[in-house]
Task: inverse folding
C-alpha cells in the first residue's frame, strides 16, 4: 500500500503528467455528459421502453456507453470512424494509391487521416438515417418527421465528429490514445450497473449467495489475467546487424529482436465474425417464418452450441486472414536487408521472409484458438448462471479492448515516471503496452 501511495504522490508531483491526467478526465467527463443529451424532438421515456438490448444493437449501445439507447446527440459515437479506419486499412493492402501514401511518411499519414475523416462523415450520415428509421419509434417523435430526420442526421454527424475531436484532444493533451479511451469508458460505464444487478440476483432466493458471487469474481480475475497474456504475448526473433567501422566509431554489430505478437490481429477477427453471425438475426427480421425453423433459431441464440462452434471457427479463420493482410514478412525481410540486418542462421531476402512467415503461422494458431475461447466465454458464463449483462465482461470485444487500453495507459504513465527518474508503476517489472492502438480496435 505504501508503494502505491508513493507512486500516486510521484504522479501528482510531475506537473506535465498531472495536467495530462486532469485533461483526460475532463474530456471524458464531457463525453459522458454528452451521451445523455437527447436529440431535439424525441420523447426519451417512450424511446427507452422500445429499445432492444439484444444482438448487434446491444453491442453498439455498450460501446457508446448507453448513448445509443438514449438517442443521444452522440449516439453513434466513434463507431463510424472505426468503420472508416477499417476500410482504409484494407484499401492500403489492395489499392496501390493507398500503398503509396502509406510509404510517404508523415505527409502520407496526414493525407490518409484526411480521407478517413471524409469517409467517416459519409458513413455517419448513412448510419444516422438508418438509426432514425430503425431505433426511433414514430410515437417518440414530437415534431415534423421530415424536419426531425434532416436535423437529426446533421446533429448525429456533428456529434460523431465532436467525439473524434475529443479523442484527438485526449491523444494530444492527455494520456494514451483518445479513441480507445472513449470506447473503454463507454464499456466501463456499464460495469457498476451490471455488478449491482448481479449482486442483487445472487442474494435472492436460489441465487447462490455470497459464495457464488466470490467465485464469479475470482473467475473474472483469472479470465482477465489470461487475456493480458494473450495481449502481451510475443515471439521474439533475434536479428543481428552487421558491424561497420567508420573512422574511430563502430556502427551496428548489436543484436536486437523482432517481437511478433501471438495475437497480431487484435479484436478484428471477433468483429468480423460477429458481423457474419448477425446475418441470421437479420434474415429472421425480414422473414419471420424462417426464424422459427430449427436451423435459424439455433443461430439466433448466442448461447447455443451450434452458434458458438460456428463463431469460434470463423474467429480462427479471420485471425489468419487479418494477420496475413497486416503482417508482411517480405516487407520485413526487405527492410531488414536494407539496414544490414539478418536472422542468425537464415539467409537474407526470401529465406528470411519464409522463416518469419513460418513463425507467424505457428504462433497464430494458439493465438486464434485462445481468442476464440475468449469470444465465447460470455455464452459459457450465461450457461453457468451469470446474468447476460454481467457476462459480457467475461470475454469478447469489450474485455479485450478494456485490457489493451488499460495496459497502454499504464505504460504511458510509467514512461513519464521513468523519464523523471522515478520508479515505475510496478515494483517487479516494467509494463509493456501495445505496439499500436489499432491492434485492439
Result:
Amino acid at each position: 500500500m505504501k508503494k502505491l501511495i508513493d507512486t500516486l504522490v510521484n504522479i501528482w508531483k510531475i506537473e506535465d503528467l498531472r495536467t495530462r491526467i486532469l485533461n483526460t478526465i475532463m474530456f471524458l467527463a464531457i463525453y459522458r455528459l454528452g451521451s445523455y443529451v437527447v436529440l431535439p424532438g424525441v420523447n426519451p421515456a417512450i424511446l427507452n421502453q422500445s429499445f432492444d438490448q439484444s444482438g448487434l444493437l446491444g453491442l453498439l449501445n455498450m460501446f457508446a456507453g448507453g448513448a445509443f439507447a438514449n438517442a443521444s446527440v452522440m449516439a453513434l459515437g466513434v463507431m463510424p470512424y472505426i468503420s472508416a479506419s477499417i476500410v482504409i486499412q484494407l484499401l492500403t493492402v489492395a489499392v496501390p494509391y493507398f500503398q503509396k501514401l502509406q510509404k510517404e511518411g508523415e505527409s502520407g499519414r496526414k493525407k490518409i487521416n484526411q480521407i478517413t475523416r471524409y469517409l467517416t462523415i459519409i458513413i455517419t450520415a448513412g448510419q444516422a438515417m438508418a438509426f432514425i428509421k430503425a431505433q426511433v419509434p414514430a410515437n417518440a417523435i414530437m415534431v415534423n418527421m421530415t424536419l426531425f430526420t434532416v436535423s437529426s442526421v446533421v446533429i448525429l454527424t456533428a456529434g460523431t465528429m465532436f467525439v473524434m475531436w475529443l479523442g484527438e484532444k485526449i491523444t494530444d493533451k492527455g494520456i494514451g490514445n483518445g479513441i480507445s479511451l472513449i470506447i473503454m469508458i463507454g464499456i466501463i460505464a456499464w460495469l457498476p450497473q451490471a455488478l449491482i444487478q448481479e449482486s442483487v440476483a445472487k442474494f435472492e432466493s436460489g441465487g447462490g449467495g455470497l459464495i457464488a458471487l466470490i467465485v464469479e469474481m475470482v473467475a473474472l480475475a483469472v479470465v482477465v489475467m489470461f487475456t493480458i497474456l494473450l495481449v502481451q504475448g510475443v515471439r521474439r526473433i533475434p536479428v543481428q546487424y552487421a558491424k561497420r567501422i567508420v573512422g574511430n566509431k563502430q556502427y551496428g554489430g548489436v543484436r536486437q529482436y523482432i517481437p511478433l505478437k501471438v495475437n497480431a490481429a487484435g479484436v478484428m477477427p471477433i468483429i468480423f465474425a460477429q458481423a457474419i453471425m448477425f446475418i441470421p438475426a437479420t434474415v429472421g427480421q425480414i422473414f419471420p417464418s424462417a426464424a422459427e425453423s430449427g436451423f435459424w433459431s439455433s443461430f439466433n441464440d448466442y448461447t447455443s452450441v451450434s452458434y458458438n462452434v460456428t463463431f469460434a471457427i470463423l474467429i480462427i479463420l479471420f485471425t489468419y486472414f487479418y494477420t496475413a493482410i497486416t503482417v508482411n514478412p517480405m516487407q520485413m525481410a526487405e527492410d531488414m536487408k536494407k539496414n544490414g540486418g539478418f536472422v542468425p542462421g537464415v539467409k537474407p531476402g526470401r529465406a528470411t521472409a519464409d522463416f518469419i512467415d513460418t513463425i507467424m503461422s505457428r504462433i497464430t494458431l494458439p493465438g486464434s484458438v485462445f481468442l476464440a475461447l475468449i469470444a465465447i466465454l460470455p455464452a459459457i458464463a450465461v450457461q453457468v448462471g451469470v446474468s447476460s449483462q454481467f457476462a459480457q465482461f467475461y470475454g469478447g470485444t469489450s474485455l479485450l479492448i478494456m485490457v489493451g487500453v488499460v495496459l497502454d495507459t499504464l505504460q504511458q504513465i510509467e514512461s513519464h515516471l521513468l523519464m523523471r527518474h522515478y520508479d515505475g508503476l510496478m515494483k517487479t517489472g516494467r509494463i509493456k503496452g501495445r505496439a499500436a492502438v489499432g491492434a485492439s480496435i
User: Anything to note?
Assistant: The beta strands are 234-241, 243-246, 249-252, 255-261, 341-342. The first helix runs from residue 2 to 13.
